[in-house]
Amino acid sequence: MVKQRAVILARLVFADRAADLALASSRLGLAPSEREALERAGQVAILLTGLSAAASAFLSKEGGPAWVPGSAARPGSGILAGRREQVEALLALARSDPGQEELARALGAALAGTGRRGSLRVGGRTFEIGERTYLMGVVNVTQDSFSDGGRYLDPAAAIAHGEALARAGADLVDVGGESTRPGAQSVGADEELARILPVIRGLRERIEVPISVDTTKAEVARAALEAGASLVNDISGLRFDPELAPVAARAGAACCLMHIQGTPRTMQASPRYGDLVEEIVASLTESVSRAEQAGIPRDRLLVDPGIGFGKTFAHNLFLLRRLGELRVLGLPVLVGTSRKAFLGALTGGKPPGERVVATAATVAIVAAAGGADFVRVHDVAEAKDAAAVGDAVRTALDAGELFSPPG
Question: Is 375 in a helix, a strand, or coil?
Answer without folding.
Answer: strand
